[in-house]
């Protein structure tokens, strides 16, 4: 679908060094040899879930596994359907990946745990595999306080629930066995993991996700929840896991566009940003909502839904996701917590439990959490963890500084540069019509260094998307990735179909970036639009019946070299204002009328303030230090409710969320 090298983009966006299973060997006779491509659909391809599930299963059966860490999940479908052969050597390689304690081994173990519960007696598996799987489960390191040095990531929001669920269900499998790495009984492991699971479920229900609306990490969060739903012996855990699954799919429904989870994201990667039809959640969207693609890129959650007999998508969520004809959908929601409220949410102590909890919100170098980070570096032997090697040269200074209180001061002084991973409270605004969607994190940490945060996006279809960043560098990994890394984040504000994006990079030197780039840029892939016109300082794009207009206060030039030739607009300067307005044929008339109305509209950008007379919304103004005003009235961009949209109004932190739409209702009570 695209002229951009998707495979290169994918390989460039991993945050680990390998992600490959080793020694998978040759596939058995009769095994699928070549990948069968599916196509993205923007219409519900089958009305019933059973039909969609059958289509996904057939797709999985006709496709081979791969040497990626998610490449063994299709083997679970073959086991369920009793339609071999199964590539057992691929499954053995998955066990080897877990045994080696490589990063994301918890992803792989999630599939193995399900296999053990659901398919262990399959005649498609050998006794050797069954014995090896049991030993792998008993030998694994389930939490950083256990013996052994490794470079697994345990602490982000998704890894938190993956590791904890694996430990809980493994302990439940073997309650009286001794787990060799920790020396603990399965019953003891189950009990300690349960506490983490309960806390995780509580925070996700009451405060949403810190890795908000992630088109990558929702695919990692759903599998452990589905494993809990299907296999946990604790009925209350099962009930609450179902609640959070419902809310995750509701998040997807209210922030998706024809099956594309193409909104603002807490964490994402280049491949998913520039190619929404290949995002990690697209398989699940097509399975549950009927729109999307069985893309073969990431298949964990789609496979798990297809394997689960205990989850049924509430019809109201399906109806919201598939109502593509609604003229206007405005959604406001608040997610995550403020670090100053840590005590309120159960993380107020200076101990390892609070430290791990705060780290799941990106509290690496935040001044309120840096001492917690230093504590874990010592207690968990993380000085040797590959993720934290950048701390090693300052090891002695950090250890002394923590004892005398200096680290907090230093972290505060350097806060705009070093607290890049923070994923604290965020207010999200999504505006959807039949012909486009615009989504923004309202003024999320403006001027602070960023990492994988995706602040705003305009979407017209699976390829015609637009967003801006101040790139962290020319590298391939965040924060220095060219597209999914952030040098310093903007103040982005949105009202309906209009958004202002202010960049104000004031940090002179960075400890974490090789250099601070002197430009901002926009992804605007000319070749993916039906027409692109430049007029009056604006760049206009037309895709089907949707329109976009993009303006740069500092002017712009088209990239003319390399992979992003004619797909990138580059604007000089560390201070700039970008303006975007969306439109559609049904509202604005022809593309030419849209161009004329916007290019002739008054727009004044002075310093870091802008006044714009929008043809559709009237006078709008905002600034780096000035509020968003529409027709002279201040519009709030903070303190949103948990949900505020046509289907739900729920206060932040509420224990009851009621959803109603088109005659269907759903009541979720924690």
TrEMBL record:
It comes from the Bacteria. It comes from Exilibacterium tricleocarpae. This is Heparin-sulfate lyase N-terminal domain-containing protein.
